[in-house]
Amino acid sequence: EQLANQIAAGEVVERPASVVKELIENSLDAGADRIEVEIVGGGTKLIRIIDNGEGMDGDDIFLCLERHGTSKIRNQEDLGAISTLGFRGEALPSIGSVSQLSISSRTYNSELGYRVELRYGTLVKSHETGCAVGTIIEIRNLFGNVPARRKFLRTTRTELGHIDEVIKNYSLVASDVSFVLRVDGRETINLSGSFNLIQRLAKIMHQPEEFFPIDFSTDGEHRVTGLLLAPEKVSPGSARLRVFVNGRAVKDRMIVHAVAEGMRGFLMKGKNPAGLILLEVPPEEMTLTFIRQNMKFVFAGLRRCTDWCKPGFLLPLGQSRA
Ligand code: ADP
Ligand code: MG
């Protein structure tokens, strides 16, 4: 069992940023609207995530530490229609097998919270504790028992860059959730839940709040929305295009390139598109192969949108073109 967890950890937990990703997904699934992340030592010394979600009681905590102890699949049917972000029930046991993990959590119905502490997969402490409704998860000494993996990590700066990126990406899809990141005690991200998407994107990209909104759907099933930095504001290398498919950040260069291609004519020569593109496609089509094959759809759509994406055509916030 412990070995299985460590093997799974190899898949789920590649680096500190993958831990942050799994934990943020869990917090979002728990309905949190405020997520704070604290990092020390690039994530190898400490990753702490504090959320105000629905929390867990003692039984839930023990359950979530078991492999496939997910609360997100209730029957076979659910498997076909997964709407929550997590569904494998592997993240916490995997992370726990390669770190010193503690979970403190309290539900709304309970006066007291519960806390467990594990050391490389072995339970060392469990007791009631006072804490706010929600969950605090701490991961210390990531890969402390797997020196080979520890060695594989890059510089603190690089690892922090990946963490920063994960949080920024989630802040764009979960745009009504507050996100805070503290690195070695210093606050580096603070995005209030009251910021709208434009304000968030401007802050993340260090750009003025001047974006062209895009919103169209050809058939009701496929949809492209987004915010593109006003062409005259795009300076080479300063800002880039973030692409999401069904709420997930896409790193695939071909997709990003294809989207950029579709915007040719809209941008000035030599300038790279920058901003945010959100593609929505039916879940069963959400494979890279599918998306690549269907980039034509995106091309066509983006060409259409360029008709009105001209200076002077900037839509006021929240207003969409019929
Ligand atoms: P999965 O997300 O695939 O279900 P995880 O190992 O990531 O698997 O989490 C296991 C379970 O632990 C979740 O299904 C959920 O019930 C519970 N859990 C984890 N993190 C939190 C959290 N921050 N708040 C509430 N419940 C959580
Ligand atoms: Mg999960």
Tertiary shape: globular
Tally the structural domains: 2
Question: What compounds sit in this structure?
Answer: adenosine-5'-diphosphate, magnesium ion
Here the CATH topology of the largest domain equals Heat Shock Protein 90
Largest sheet: 8 strands, mixed
Strand order of the largest sheet: 5-4-3-6-2-1-7-8
* Fourth CATH level, the homologous superfamily of the largest domain: Histidine kinase-like ATPase, C-terminal domain
CATH class of the largest domain: Alpha Beta
How many individual helices? 11
Uncertain stretches of 5 or more adjacent residues: 75-87, 307-322
Radius of gyration: 21 Å
Mean pLDDT: 81
Strand content: 25-35%
What class do helices, strands and sheet pairing give?
alpha+beta
Organism: Desulfotalea psychrophila (strain LSv54 / DSM 12343)
Family: Belongs to the DNA mismatch repair MutL/HexB family.
GO biological process, one term: mismatch repair
GO molecular function, one term: mismatched DNA binding
